[in-house]
């Protein structure tokens, strides 16, 4: 059984949806029933989204709802963009986007983690001249990241952010 089949239930469904379409529409292909592609989405698909997906994928699309976190995790798994774990990496860091505050123009995001057997907590500071300042302002404002964010997710989130910025230009 392939990893695509474990994630989506159907290799064919996974292969029908390019990664860019899945990320842009925040959907995960699940299976094909007759001529209809079943996808998971955070909320019921709008008529406009169904029509757009029908046009792009050249097939009928029906949505089922899943949590934003479930979708984010499956998108990363499906597109193999989770970083590999290194056996030497014993530390872990989490960002808490829901717990953020501004000191003037500086964004502060609560973070915590483990290093060996020691727990630590604090905040990550993103002043306006920090290269990730705008990305973190976006992260704390979008629903899929209103959860604990593992520091190992940041590179893949950065790729999503870069696609978002390119699309908005």
Automatic annotation (TrEMBL):
<feature type="domain" description="Type II secretion system protein GspE N-terminal">
    <location>
        <begin position="12"/>
        <end position="68"/>
    </location>
</feature>
<dbReference type="InterPro" id="IPR007831">
    <property type="entry name" value="T2SS_GspE_N"/>
</dbReference>
<protein>
    <recommendedName>
        <fullName>Type II secretion system protein GspE N-terminal domain-containing protein</fullName>
    </recommendedName>
</protein>
<dbReference type="InterPro" id="IPR037257">
    <property type="entry name" value="T2SS_E_N_sf"/>
</dbReference>
<dbReference type="Pfam" id="PF05157">
    <property type="entry name" value="MshEN"/>
</dbReference>
């Amino acid at each position: 059984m392939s990893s695509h089949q474990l994630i989506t239930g159907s290799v064919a469904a996974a292969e029908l949806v390019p990664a860019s379409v899945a990320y842009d529409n925040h959907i995960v292909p699940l299976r094909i029933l007759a001529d209809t592609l079943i996808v998971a989405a955070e909320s019921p698909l709008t008529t406009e989204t169904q029509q757009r997906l029908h046009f792009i994928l050249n097939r009928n699309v029906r949505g089922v709802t899943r949590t934003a976190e479930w979708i984010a995790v499956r998108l990363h798994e499906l597109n193999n963009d989770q970083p590999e774990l290194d056996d030497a990496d014993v530390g872990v860091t989490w960002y808490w986007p829901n717990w953020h505050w501004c000191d003037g123009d500086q964004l502060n995001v609560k973070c915590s983690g483990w290093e060996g057997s020691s727990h630590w907590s604090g905040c990550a500071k993103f002043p306006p001249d920090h290269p990730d300042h705008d990305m973190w302002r976006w992260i704390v404002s979008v629903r899929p990241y209103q959860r604990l964010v593992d520091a190992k997710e940041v590179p893949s989130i950065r790729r999503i952010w870069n696609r978002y910025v390119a699309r908005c230009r």
